[in-house]
Amino acid sequence: MSEQKIGTRSELKRFRELAQQMKQYDEILGVVYWDMRTGAPRKGIGLRSEAVGALSSEIFRISTSDEMGQLLDTLSAPEQAEALSPVDKRLVEEQKKEYDRNKKIPADMHREYVVLSSQSESAWEEAKEKDDFEGFVPYLEKIIDYNRKFIDLWGVKSTPYDTLLDLYEPGLTTTELDRLFGELRSRLVPLAEAIASSDNRPDTSFLEGTFDKEAQKKFSRFILNEMGYDFEAGRLDESVHPFATGLSPGDVRITTRYLPHDVTSALFGTIHEGGHALYEQNIAEELAGTPLCTGTSMGIHESQSRLWENMVGRSRGFWQRYFPELQKHFPGQLDHVTAEQFYRGINVVEPSLIRIEADELTYNLHIMIRYEIERMIFNEGLEARDLPEVWNAKYKEALGLTPPTNALGVLQDVHWSGGAFGYFPSYSLGNMYGAQMMNVAKRKLPNLDERIAEGQLLPLKEWLTGQVYTHGKLLLPAEIIERVSGEPLRSTYLCDYLEQKYRDIYRLG
Amino acid sequence: MSEQKIGTRSELKRFRELAQQMKQYDEILGVVYWDMRTGAPRKGIGLRSEAVGALSSEIFRISTSDEMGQLLDTLSAPEQAEALSPVDKRLVEEQKKEYDRNKKIPADMHREYVVLSSQSESAWEEAKEKDDFEGFVPYLEKIIDYNRKFIDLWGVKSTPYDTLLDLYEPGLTTTELDRLFGELRSRLVPLAEAIASSDNRPDTSFLEGTFDKEAQKKFSRFILNEMGYDFEAGRLDESVHPFATGLSPGDVRITTRYLPHDVTSALFGTIHEGGHALYEQNIAEELAGTPLCTGTSMGIHESQSRLWENMVGRSRGFWQRYFPELQKHFPGQLDHVTAEQFYRGINVVEPSLIRIEADELTYNLHIMIRYEIERMIFNEGLEARDLPEVWNAKYKEALGLTPPTNALGVLQDVHWSGGAFGYFPSYSLGNMYGAQMMNVAKRKLPNLDERIAEGQLLPLKEWLTGQVYTHGKLLLPAEIIERVSGEPLRSTYLCDYLEQKYRDIYRLG
Fold first, then answer.
1. Which of A355, B17, B178, B454 is in Cβ range 3.0-4.6 Å of A366 for a Cys bridge?
2. Given a cut of 80, is residue A34 above it in pLDDT?
3. Closest residue, chain B, to A17 (C-alpha)
4. B47/A288 CB distance under 8 A
């Protein structure tokens, strides 16, 4: 064995150690974040946040240390890289990407930006409450300005906005998004308009009333079990904003929120987070304890939550099987309703101003608008102060509505205040990935709809495990969708699915 | 300003940073431990334990680093130390003690011992289950052997056992413990005997029955509130073994265990852990975020849990006020019982074989036996294989009972299997410190018994805060008791208190 290879071997060992250590610290931070959001005592938050900051800094320090830089140089040299196992190779790639990205931002600038983001989020909160966009403009301007500088430092890809997209969906481009959202616009805007003028709005009156919290909890647990969520590798708790967190495949936690007057909130929230959780619970054993043991991108992650929430959880077959169970959980309250009525009621389409309250169909239009605006900011020089005008015009055009206030318009989301530009597209990408995968699943799994209607959800879970979950971050999003469907991501499947489903529900002929 | 002083100042700053970092990591580990004991999913425990191990190692690394060694050398030099604030001075002292102790154990030896302890705890568990002391002997021998080596490496104080005592109760000596336990033996053994032959055993039949869990929870929360436990700086959960954990003064958590057939278990468990928690919640602001923000010793900590559990929570006055409340929580179940009957019933004395089931009085005899045996092991060469014989003889002598099996005798406690020699005395020290403090409190706080009987518990809590809690680890245990009572620790106050209380309950005249 050559001396060089022996050298690489000890360097590989050290690299793996550092990667494992960062993952371990990350797992521990995950527990603390979960705790902070599920009931940590108020008076301890100040010191706890400082402690979290200290450990986060340590992870950052390791990931950008000189030692890490040297190890990455050695291990990513072409002649070495090809000797690595696929896992090690991918691990080196990921870590190198992070190293390069972090090293390009001067430490002072990074510190200033962390402080600014935190101030900006507070300013946004106040501005939203007071409907005071003007008060928020100076912060938003600075946040945009820093992001423009980051793009220059990281290096402009095909367009400046592409550099930001790559943070959340590696390899995704503006060209591709233009194509994807172009089709969404041309097919979903007319569909939403046709629905708006339909006389067949589903009845939703039976969703009103008070639904016992304990029964809601019980039903949430029941459905998670049916989906194949493993309660010995997770737990279900409550929090103000529902979330799922994968600490390790053996500990993937879900939270939900029970509203007494809205039984659908906890129900679909639980299925949504349950989809995220199935992903994280089923990553291959060999990736456990490495930074590759997580979802491969925001978009693929969101595809799983949305596939389970909407394409399974809001399907006709699902409620053929589970509506009688729901009725049993709330005796007397839903006796006069049929499974079909319930199915139609939970799929009502209603153009609205607020993204997080939107239905499955128009949700994509909310995202499309945000995508177009972000692209204008970074590729066409749109400035912060002009956002409300552009925002309102786009809402009028796509959804036929004009926000009466900025609080109900451009100020509604937290994302931009913290600098998360390029994140929004993930939500619709999730819908598109999901539809494309389900299209394949229906061909590969015989009688899938019928099986779902019999409560056999596990074959779908197993298939998704093999196709998606098991790979963790070992495959890139584009590789996943290509392997699953034999073609790159297309919006056609989402549009087809939505058209078919909603033309039926609204009897558009 | 001299150059030397400027140098010291930057070293002091760096030292404080490292101390804070260790405390922050410790706080984070505390959250993870709490989580593991209150419901973390089973399947995540393996990786979680490794992650905890990694962060613990990092704390150990910092505390024994060359940088820490150099900082401690500089800051503890006589001419520098006197320029430090009392907090910094004490911090340097504590850190130096830890540094010296850890540096004296070779790294290999430390690693071997960690592995051995873990194996030994498993072997103990099995041995206890199978009543197989012989199977446990090889492990116990090695554990004792390592501890004898540690004593040599750390340096023998007045006697070898003194070196171990110092780990848990800094400054405590065998000479002093001989004096303290000597008086306990001479006064409590006859008292227990007199009680055993008394005809006035309190009635306890009303404690049998089934007590609603939700009502038990509610009453536990009610009593904690009355004690002044701050629920905005803590929370009450359930775990198999109750504990309290002070993550920071703003987050001090308690767990308890609700037994349907024993209402006293959760009740006194909660008050006990509540006493620990009051200590940690009320440490001075200026110590928060430093390693001095914790109880000063095992013994002083235990004094607070036991003072609240026994001297307050099992007092006649306490139940004059709270028994009607307890009756309200369990309607119909305790109607035929008087507060006085309840008070006597919860104070029944019953010599028994098992320490953790012992009453307030005989508990001290269980500890005395363990102390005498530990002293024999390290100062007189008693060997592992001879422990059952010594154990059984001492139980016969002090409690009049002979364990029918080793599982009910020498194998009952986990402590020795993990190498925690020198820990047991803390429990009785807690009782002694507590009695000595209460003796002063009764002189300093006018009509203390009457106030407790009116449900005014806060004056006692405030007094203890000023005397004990606020100081955290800034004062040594001996300094605390000296400042509170004007004299060193004596066992007289505990013996007086127990004699008075139990001669009354058992009408020994």
1. A355
2. yes
3. B54
4. yes
Q: Which residue pairs from A190-194 have beta carbons closer than 8 angstroms and sit at least 24 positions apart in sequence?
A: A191/A361, A191/A498, A191/A499, A191/A502, A191/A503, A192/A349, A192/A351, A192/A361, A192/A362, A192/A365, A192/A399, A193/A400, A194/A506, A194/A508
Within 8 A of B289 by CB-CB distance, chain A residues are 47, 50
Note the helical H segments in A282-404.
Answer: 298-306, 316-329, 339-345, 363-380, 387-399
Instruction: Tell me if chain A has a CB within 8 Å of the CB of B37.
Output: no
A-chain residues near B43 (CB < 8 A): 230, 232-233, 249-251
* Domain presence at residue A160: no
Partner-chain contact A44 B231, CB within 8 Å: no
Is B235 an interface residue toward A (CB < 8 Å)?
yes
Q: How many structural domains compose chain A?
A: 2
* Domain stops at, among A103, A124, A159: A103
CA distance B90 to B87: 5
> Is the Cβ of B47 closer than 8 Å to some Cβ of chain A?
yes
Q: Do B329 and B463 share a domain, yes or no?
A: yes
Q: Measuring CA to CA, which residue among A195, A189, A191 is closest to residue A506?
A: A195
Domain interval for residue A64: 1-103
- Which single residue is written with the structure tokens 């309290």? B244
Q: Which among A41, A42, A248 has CB closest to B44? A: A248
Q: What pLDDT sits at residue A454? A: 98
Q: Does A238 touch chain B (CB under 8 A)?
A: no
Does residue A385 belong to any structural domain of this protein? no
Q: Which residue of B has its CA nearest to A20?
A: B51
End of a domain among B103, B129, B146?
A: B103
Whole-angstrom Cα distance, residue B161 to residue B52?
Answer: 31
| Minimal CA separation from B141 to chain A, in Å | 35
Instruction: For residue B253, give the chain A residue with the closest CA.
Output: A41
Instruction: State whether residue B49 sits within 8 Å of chain A by CB.
Output: no
- Structure tokens of B128? 């206890």
Name the 3-class secondary structure at A335: coil
**Cα B132 to Cα B409: distance, rounded to the nearest angstrom:** 12
Q: Annotated catalytic sites of A, by residue?
A: 273
Helix ranges (H only) for A197-234 are 213-227
Same domain, B98 and B211: no
Same domain, B231 and B347: yes
Q: Residue B473 carries which DSSP code? A: T
Q: How far apart are CA B267 and CA B270, in angstroms?
A: 5
Q: Give me the sign of the Cα torsion angle A303, A305, A311, A314.
A: negative
CATH number at residue B446: 1.10.1370.30
Q: Which of A26, A224, A251, A285 to mutate to test the interface with B (most CBs of B within 10 A)?
A: A251
Rounded CA separation A408/B186 (Å): 79
Is residue A271 classed as helix, strand or coil in its secondary structure?
Answer: helix
Query: Tell me, what's the ipTM?
Result: 0.93
Q: Which residue ranges in chain B fall short of pLDDT 50?
A: 1-3
B18: nearest CA in chain A?
A54
Contact B55 A24 (CB under 8 A): yes
Answer yes or no: is B253 within a domain: yes
**A251 vs B27, B44, B230: nearest CB:** B44
Residue A338 sits in the same domain as residue A216: yes
Residue with tokens 């005071």: A132
- Show residues of chain B in contact with A244, CB under 8 Å: none
What count of CB pairs under 8 Å joins A to B? Answer: 118
Q: What is the pLDDT of residues B110-135, one digit of tens each?
A: 889 988 998 999 999 999 999 999 99
**A429: buried, middle or exposed (CB in 10 Å: 19+, 13-18, 0-12)?**
buried
Residue B438 lies in a domain: yes
- Check residue A107 and give its pLDDT: 85
- What are the tens digits of pLDDT across the range B136-159? 999 999 999 999 999 999 999 999
Q: Is A248 on the interface with B (CB under 8 A)?
A: yes
